[in-house]
User: Fold these one by one.
Assistant:
Number 1:
Amino acid sequence: MGAPLGRRRAGLGLLTVGWLTLVPVLGVRPAGAAEPEGRIIDRVVAVIEEQVLTLSELEFETRVALVQRGGVRAAEAPLDERTLQGALELAINQRLLVASADRLQAFPAERSEVEARLRDFRDRFEDELALLAFLARYDADVDQLSRVLERGVRAERVLDSRIRLRAQVSETEVRRYWQQHSETLGGPYELIRDNLKEKLVRERYGQLAAAEFAQVRAGARVRRVAPFAREVRP
């Protein structure tokens, strides 16, 4: 999230222009019943370094991220195109970072880290039954949830290893910023120093992360298949 993490993969030969119909699933039917029509069970959204990302996977990962960031109620809201686009960019970034780590057999996710993420996720639900109901609603299970969380842990570790040190700010930089914005910041320097430093580190980290993602994508093979999956440009 290198050992393989059980991500669904499919060859490029499966792809055609536009949306794809995957293998139809035919349910068990009573004897003598008419042959049911094949039905679309999933669609391909993108292919990331030969990893197929389906709509159901993207929607589930989006729901997981919404639970992590905004709670259970946020995950129950309808997913609009903008939300899916943002989730797709996150999915691409995570998969490319993890793929780079896999090639080097580096940055495995510690079991304790994944279990901690899983506990935190569980704690956002009223009880275990509510969590299982959430998973069932999206045809997922705890193993699939763990793989999503593990991928996030690994992607964060890879990114952190590349930019964390460069994101640090010096005492001089913090004080200079305070001097330039003291009228709007309010309060003496000593009282707001820690919060101000955290803000500056966070901003620099975000800038470095954006640059890192752009560099990772520059040589990557990413094919966007779904209509809403067009690349978001500033």
Note: The first helix runs from residue 55 to 70.
Number 2:
Amino acid sequence: MSAQQPYSFFQSVERSFDKAAKFTQWNPGILEQIKACNSVYQMRFPVKMDDGRIEVIEAYRVQHSHHKAPCKGGIRFSDEVNQDEVMALASLMTYKCAIVNVPFGGGKGGIKINPRKYSVYELEKITRRYTSELVKKNFIGPGTDVPAPDYGTGEREMAWIVDTYASLKPGEIDAAGCVTGKPITQGGVRGRREATGLGVFYGIREVCNMEDVMNRQGLSVGIAGKTVVVQGLGNVGFHSAKFFREAGAKVIALAEYEGAIMNPDGLNEEEVFEHRKATGSILNFPGATNLAKNTDALELACDILIPAALENVINGDNAPRVQAKIIGEAANGPCTPEADEVFTQKGILCVPDMYLNAGGVTVSYFEWLKNLSHVRYGRMEKRFTENLNGHILGQIEELSGKKVSDKERAFIMHGPEEKDLVHSGLEETMITATREIMEVWKSNPGIPDMRTAAYVNAINKVATSYAELGIFP
């Protein structure tokens, strides 16, 4: 397509899929089935606003793949929501779940509204009506389709969804598993809020621990001392910046839609967040330099660039000016296929969104399992582990005649809380996924970039599921 006719988001995903499919041996028919969206539900429903007028709301739910059940994917509230975007995000969820070995098919939902323009009561009515529409067509349920928060939604909306679902399905014992990202009191899981940012950190950390990869990028092994730029100070960007800083990296710039700030000595995301809360902007943060445009942050010289805002922020136009050595896609689709080609030429390693920001869905999987098992993580083993560790420690101290420090004693004695187990499961997931993708890439030198390697990995897993189900005799 010409520059005047850019690829739609879904076409960009299909283009990346086709690029990777050439490196697989599957029947073209199976590849077409994997690529296609299985079910697209477009709806319109009326809602009475606070001032008495009736507004017709446009909304969507897409189930991309049924090779595993249930389907899984967030619901976003945004003016920009359209069918193409929801289809693209649903397909990315299929590949994302396959890569991180989470047994879900991909799904996605969206309501075309700007949530800032509605009262809480209006948002509640819209969310509950949307949920009832999904129930009518069997597009929600713990074994069918499990939504989650996304752009413009959070725990509050998920609580409304689970309450509406449970009221329409009285006596369904697993009703809490119909949606994830819920408040803890409604069956949510501890560690969910920071999950995506923490997953981004674990994925990049594993890449940075690979000596051959770091040698190729001209960087030292490990996170410590690396310079990092983060675009977006929402939930994902904030926690990404936090975990990188705590691991010894230097966050030299932060960008938001109102502008960007830079400090070569490093920024503390919590202080910047408080400054923004007080002033309404990250600009004019003490000790930092304001950048002319928020997109200028994407072009700063740094070791690691984390785009954690919206899609298509790095494209064929600005990609040649990107100076980062590693890009970690924390947002969905922040780099276009044209940008990927530039990165390949320049030797920039782009760690793709389709697995890097899978922390949210991984921990959603843990929440769903918790809802189905009806028991909190750690409840069965926490005290047993503490008692056992205490006994071992006592024996070591008695035999050695030495005492460990109070700090070490507390660490050794500690039995796992729910949050500890969730973070541990997420760490294992991201390390395993990173290694699998790198193995695919190494085993086929023709694969041009890490995104294509990730797609090849996903295609092989989904196609194997279809083959084993006997769908294609």
Note: The CA atoms of residues 226 and 379 lie 39 Å apart.
Number 3:
Amino acid sequence: MTTPNNEVLLHVKNLVKHFPIHRGLLQKQVGAVRAVDDISFDIKRGETLGLVGESGCGKSTTGRSILQLYRPTSGNVEIDGVDLVRLKGEDLRRMRRKMQMIFQDPYASLNPRMTVGNIIGEPLIVHNIASGKEVDDRVSHLLELVKLNPSFATRYPHEFSGGQRQRIGVARALSLQPSFIVCDEPISALDVSIQAQVVNLLEDLQEQFNLTYLFIAHDLSMVRHISTRVAVMYLGVMVELASRKDLYESPLHPYSQALLSAVPIPDPIAEATRKRTILEGDVPSPANPPSGCRFRTRCPIAEKICAESRPEFREVTTGHFVACHMVK
């Protein structure tokens, strides 16, 4: 893992992404799914920010909104000081060279009608970076980087295992030499034995090319392994952001505490004696979130103020941010 410097590569401010709900014959808008609802954070060059939370909390929507695959409802997303939200057409296309995505499902994210060579080489041709034999040479080099045989370039995706397909996806993401990559649960569809190999590959590539990652995942132990800092999302909002050490050793938000209490400890005595936080009830609908604090309907320490006002996402100690009325 590279040690990040203090230069901010990605700056996200008040990011909002709502999906309209239409009903009736005239498809009138009757509401909105508030998938991402006013979140702000920075990622420094060379670091990995882990983004965790339950399914449906807005992690993947955050990643896609940053890359402008979903155009944000409001807010700012700056990479190297350039606000992507304001860009359109050719200007946005040029910026896409700096940012790429590794998708969750290696079976769905590769075109089955294209050879591996065409899949990896297509970005080079689209962005007019290389042509002819130069594309073939770059594809061979990229396959070697992800520990695959360059002769695989003539094969099709169905001929590979899930782990090999994900490596092809990594090679495609690297083809434009980006500085920022969104890893959208890149290991969740893989066997456990393969997951560590892919994560180690991502770490090696980060070291080699000074890459910056937003690593979205469910697996908290894997996030702890790869991340420099960790952010916790719940129902479209960010509830805690801290260094890996601070978050895992002293989580402040009740939701973070509940998530981490579910992670097994490889020590039978400690596992038997530690206290578990069991959350009751279901996650509310993002189309109709609770008033005030989003987590209050499931929070074991909620009080009246939690229903009345939304807690400010504030810095409690140096580098440790939390959104909770009960944390002083």
Note: The first strand starts at residue 8 and ends at 23.
